[in-house]
Amino acid sequence: MDISHQDLLSVLKSELVTSIGCTEPAAVALACAKAKEHLNDELDHLNVLVSRDVFKNGFKVGIPGTEQRGLLIAIALGYLFGNPDAGLEVLQSVGTGALGDAESLVLSGRITIDIDQDYDGLFIQVNAKGITHEALVIIKEEHNHIARIEVDGAVLLEDQPDEASGRMNASAILDALTPEAIVRFADTVDIHEIMFVYEAAEINARAAREGMSNSWGLNIGKTLMALDDGDAGEDDSRLTISRITRAAAFAAAASDARMSGCSCPIVINSGSGNQGITASLPVLSIARDMGIDKQLVMRALVMSHLLSLYQKHFSDRISAFCGVVTAAVGAGCAAAYMLGGGLVEIEHTMNTALGGISGMICDGAKSSCAMKIALAVQNALIACAVGLQGKGITPGEGIVGADAHGTVKNIGRLATEGMRGTDEVILQIMLDTSE
Questions:
Q1: Which has the minimum average pLDDT: 236-250, 343-357, 396-410?
Q2: HSE (side-chain half, CA atoms, 13 Å) at 25
Q3: Is 407 helix (H, G, I), strand (E, B) or coil?
Q4: Is domain 18-159 annotated with CATH 3.40.50?
Q5: Would the pLDDT of 234 be above 90?
Q6: 18-159 and 170-434 share one fold
Q7: Structural domain boundaries of the chain?
Q8: Rounded Cα distance, 243 and 273, in Å
Q9: Which of 1, 233, 254, 368 falls between 20 and 30 A from 375, CA-CA?
Q10: Closest by CA position to 254, among listed 299, 296, 298, 220
């Protein structure tokens, strides 16, 4: 498949969208808001069926504008006050006065949540029953992709294949990508066409500054920054441990705030705010520390986001595999690119980073995600430093493939085939622990 610049720009523009709060509760709230829009009746009962990974990621995460956690309050807020036309910013206009009504709906017992244990990936079905009418909404595969709407059994919207519906076949584009093609695109794309990627990173940086300024979650970002001993005597041309620490802290701080209920908007990657944070903020941090030209930073951010999307394409969008690992790899490669590395050094960075902590699990969205971001960023930037020396994990060592593309496909296989049972065990442990 021939991939044009416009194909890749379209992928970036469709993926780098804004979300408020964790994307799984946001997607559930969006489905609920859509169901209410079409019900036109007094609510009698609201049943929400979700895949295990949606449940897992919504189980303990903070909900924006509240001090509460979990899917029940997100469902109630989405149904009562969500904006059905706002996408993953569905809860953007929910004020503090809305919480009492939402809590009353939760306490009324009219909301039930069921888990589809057999569906791998992202699936949400909301069935809103009124006194005389019923509305059903399904979101699947992507957090903001509404696949079906029914009212009283009549189908108002039904998902169509990409080609039939006219939607861009992003899956085919990502399937045909390689690291070489991504580097070539980053080198040659018109700088004016990628300004939106830099603007997206600045949006995420505001969340990081909030995480650094106030107390959110575990304060991983602030704690890590406090460990930095400064940059006195640092060589402007090298990636030092102090710069790596600051980059990890900056990204972790944004997650500290986001996972604990901060209403700061975040531009996502692969349907994940934490992956959007991880793909962008370490790049900004390194660039600002080292005085790197803005246009080069923009190209590096494009590379980071596309490498993140490309890697994640080979596994389920949500699974037992922690996606910040691959997003951090994108950021590590972007750092190598900014520091003069070419395709060889970038592939070394990918292989070494993926061969490092690729086994990190996703055990739900929560405050400790910031810790995972910090570790993943440090891993990827250390791999970058090794790669810039012309070294990397060699083919055949563990899961590292014949080239970086082979390694990425191996990671996808690990995440889908190898970790399916892990996912089931993680969810059961979470449920047992909560009892």
A1: 236-250
A2: 30
A3: helix
A4: no
A5: no
A6: no
A7: 18-159, 170-434
A8: 23
A9: 233
A10: 220
Beta-bridge partners for 150: 136, 155
Contact 147, 139 (CB under 8 A): yes
Cβ count near 279 (within 10 Å): 37
The structure tokens listed for 202 are 């600045």
| pLDDT at residue 161, as a whole number | 64
Report the b/e string of 239-267 with b at 16+ CB within 10 A: bbebbbbbbbbbbbbbbbbbbbbbbbbbb
Assess contact for 227 and 332: CB atoms under 8 A. Answer: no
Residue 44, H or E segment: strand 43-51
How many angstroms separate the CA atoms of 306 and 327, rounded?
9
What token pair was written down for 25? 């509760």
Q: Is 147 helix (H, G, I), strand (E, B) or coil?
A: strand
Give the integer Cα–Cα distance in Å for 10 and 1: 16
Backbone phi, psi, residue 51, to 5°: -70, 165
- Host H or E run for residue 294: helix 294-313
pLDDT of residue 162: 56
Architecture of domain 170-434: Orthogonal Bundle (1.10)
Amino acid, single-letter form, for residue 366: K
E-only strand ranges, 102-192: 111-116, 123-130, 134-140, 146-151, 154-158
